[in-house]
Amino acid sequence: MSQYITDTTKLKCDKGASPAPLTVTSQSFMSIDGKLQATEEDRQPNINIKPFGMCSVLRSSCTPLPIKWDNTSDFEIDGKKELLDCSTCYCSVGGKISIVKCTQNFVEE
């Protein structure tokens, strides 16, 4: 089952050298475990998605240039689709951004 993505979830770019945290700014009222839930609008370079170290395409700093999130939820927050742990975002430089690790904590019953 897919998990929803929240603030500080680790992202990676297949052309970058290191992971970077996601910063949620697209909405301010829906949260899971005290962290804001991410939407498809959380794709602004250097604001929502930080650099991924060295870029193997540019051979310089891997500043993301995200196009749009794919594989989003059917559910929306304020008209914006929710991000899932299977969501991906292509970078106009040529990389593919994906989720490394969700920050949600689930308790098994």
From TrEMBL:
Instruction: Name the InterPro entries on file.
Output: DUF4280
Q: Which Pfam families match?
A: DUF4280
The lineage's top-level taxon is Bacteria
User: What protein name applies here?
Assistant: DUF4280 domain-containing protein
Q: Which organism is it from?
A: Chryseobacterium culicis
